[in-house]
Amino acid sequence: MGIFQDLVERVTAYLGDKTLMHAAVSAASNVIVADSEVDEGEVETALLAMSANAIIDKGYDTLMLETELFDGIGRVWTRVGRADNLSRVAAIAERSIEQRNGVFLIAADAADHEGISEVEHRALNEIAAALVVDKETLLRLAHVKPSIAP
């Protein structure tokens, strides 16, 4: 990473990177509702995972993240809402691989709260495609069982 890009990312972290935060919230939302229910444990895991991201944590407090997460969850119940969430995820597709992997892993953590179901794997496939990341490699490296579903 170049010095200039590093500086921009550090400054953005302190100002709050809304695009990155929306990508993380939207990815987590699509996974949380993939099985047609909102599991409180998955929500808590997503919030914890987002707080573990240095850029998101420096720019947003837990209440702000929770509010944005529930907005994202509210969108998921319709096709247009799920598509909107995926477009928010894809908005960071040109960012560093570290940021894209981080957003994917936030969604994977939420999905893996009680094991990743087949429908959650499908949601993770869509998220990985939007982020242009390798789902299987990331899940394997993060010690999560790789695919149940293709």
Task: Summarize the topology.
Blueprint: H1 3-15, H2 18-32, H3 40-52, H4 54-59, H5 62-76, H6 79-90, H7 97-111, H8 118-131, H9 135-141
Give a nutshell description of this structure.
With 150 residues, this protein is an all-alpha fold. The protein has helices at residues 3-15, 18-32, 40-52, 54-59, 62-76, 79-90, 97-111, 118-131, 135-141.
How would you describe this protein?
- This protein is mainly α and 150 residues long.
- The protein is built from 9 helices and no strands.
List the helices and strands in order: HHHHHHHHH
What fraction of residues sit in β-strands?
under 5%
For the residues shown, what is the average pLDDT? 90
Q: What count of helical segments does DSSP give?
A: 9
Sheet bearing the most strands, described?
none
Low-confidence stretches: none
Distance between the termini: 33 Å
| Quantity of strands, as a count | 0
Rg over CA atoms, rounded to whole Å, is 14 Å
Classification by helices and strands = mainly alpha
Q: What portion of residues is helical?
A: over 70%
Shape: globular
What brief labels describe this structure?
single chain, mainly alpha, 9 helices
